[in-house]
Design a protein that fits this description.
Blueprint lengths: L9 H12 L5 E4 L4 E4 L6 H7 L3 E2 L23 H13 L3 H12 L1 H8 L9 H14 L4 H17 L10 H20 L10 H13 L4 H16 L4 H4 L6 E2 L10 E8 L2 E10 L11 E6 L10 H9 L22 H11 L15 H12 L4 H8 L3 H9 L2 H17 L5
Parallel strand pairs: 3-4
Antiparallel strand pairs: 1-2, 5-6, 6-7
Helix pairs in contact: 4-7, 5-6, 6-8, 7-8, 9-10, 10-12, 10-14, 14-15, 15-16
Length: 423
């Protein structure tokens, strides 16, 4: 069996081989250090992006694969094939990312046992649970939310091993985790530690100036600005827009090139441009077909902030031929991840932010528009509608006629520009 089905010879074979492997002319020998490297020349970046490929992987938010290093439910009475199939169904009930957190929880048991100098085995006793909380909070310095996630992992491990343990939900366990949470809040208050700050128009202006002055290729500048404007104006979570990994992607949750559509419609008697993003697995809605979220062009004094223009300019320097690749990719064809975006934000805004207001991360963009709308006096229903914060508001958003939503988008930015609220 070859790489491609059927017979392929001669010139056709050469063409398909180039498509499979990429243009080998892009690789050249650096005589000075006697090794091969991949060219990242600025003027060849669009070509590079079209040749390099991220690898699709077995996808699905829920997968029938072993979690926690276990291959089947542990049972002395069930036949092996039933135990394995039952475990597959359990695996499908848990998201892949959640399963990874559960595995981390299991990995904490052994070092905790060694540090506390007491054996900790499954099933856990109430004393084991108390010891684990003290170890995680006082020795590892974990937050209460992380400890709660780990205990969810412990519960799943018990179910897989055939134990239905009430000690994991004992009153003392609940109270201790609550106490850790209260302690964290007091510690943050004493240290004057603030939660992340939301993005404002002022911060976006500083970011745009820094991108303009940065010594980086045009493709990267446009990629960063596309990410920033899209996440702000669409109130997106960062991995609704960017892939999670650099070298591979999960098609069922990643924004692909084919998921971006540019459209226009008539609103208030004039044509309005929009960019439409297809979210296949949004957190607030679990329908099989996903949903589309429209971002309408920004006009007037804040037209420089327009996400539609940013998306179009970024698309202009990337490959337009492969709808089966993620939309946000670097010049070399690798995925541009949330972590990479955070690193770029840190470098571009270094020394330009008031860090006493809290850190600024990729998630600050999702909170940005809602915060500015609240300051400008928009009602809660409009804020919830633009940000998709509840399932009810989300359904209202997607069912509202597009011209009405376009008018609302225009109203938001005109009001913000004229309100006198610090942006």
């Amino acid at each position: 069996m070859g790489i491609w089905p059927g017979r392929t010879t001669g010139l056709n074979l050469r063409k398909k081989w180039l498509r499979y492997r990429g243009n080998t002319d892009l690789y050249h020998r650096d005589v000075s250090n006697k090794r091969s490297f991949y060219s990242e020349d600025t003027d060849r970046q669009p070509e590079l992006a079209s040749k390099s490929q991220m690898v699709p992987k077995s996808y699905g938010k829920y997968q029938q694969k072993p979690m926690m290093g276990i291959s089947a439910l542990e049972s002395n009475t069930l036949p092996d094939f039933i135990a394995k199939q039952a475990y597959a169904h359990v695996s499908m009930s848990i998201a892949v990312t959640t399963a990874a957190q559960y595995k981390s929880a299991i990995n904490v048991i052994t070092p905790a046992s060694e540090y506390l100098k007491r054996p900790i085995n499954i099933p856990l006793t109430t004393e084991d649970c108390i010891a684990l909380i003290v170890y995680m909070a006082n020795v590892r310095g974990l937050k209460s939310s992380t400890i709660e996630n780990y205990f969810s992992g412990f519960r799943m491990l018990h179910l897989i091993k055939g134990h239905y343990n009430h000690h994991l939900r004992a009153d003392i366990v609940t109270q201790m985790i609550k106490g850790v949470k209260n302690g964290d809040q007091i510690k943050d208050m004493i240290l004057n530690k603030h939660p992340r700050q939301p993005v404002t128009v002022g911060i976006m202006a500083k970011l745009k100036e820094s991108i303009h002055n940065a010594k980086m290729p045009t493709q990267k500048k446009r990629l960063i600005w596309f990410t920033a404007t899209t996440c702000l104006l669409g109130s997106f979570r960062i991995h609704e827009v960017l892939p999670k990994e650099q070298n591979s992607f999960d098609k069922s949750i990643t924004l692909m090139q084919g998921d971006i559509k540019f459209t226009s419609l008539k609103s208030n008697g004039k044509m309005t441009k929009a960019v439409s993003l297809h979210l296949k697995n949004p957190k607030e809605d679990k329908t099989t077909h996903g949903i589309r979220v429209d971002i309408f062009e920004t006009t007037g004094p804040l037209r420089w902030l327009c996400a539609v223009n940013a998306a179009m300019k970024y698309e202009g320097v990337m490959s337009k031929t492969d709808s089966e690749q993620p939309f946000a990719r670097t010049a070399s064809g690798k995925g541009y991840t949330g972590r990479m975006f955070n690193e770029d934000l840190k470098q571009l805004l270094m020394g330009k932010l008031d860090i006493s207001l809290g850190p600024l991360t990729s998630h600050s963009f999702r909170a940005g528009l809602a915060t500015m709308m609240a300051k400008a006096g928009f009602p809660d229903k409009d804020i919830q509608l633009t940000g998709r914060w509840t399932s009810t508001a989300f359904k209202s958003y997607v069912k509202t006629a597009r011209p009405k939503r376009a008018a609302l988008a225009a109203s938001i930015w005109n009001t913000l520009a004229e309100s006198g609220v610090p942006l």
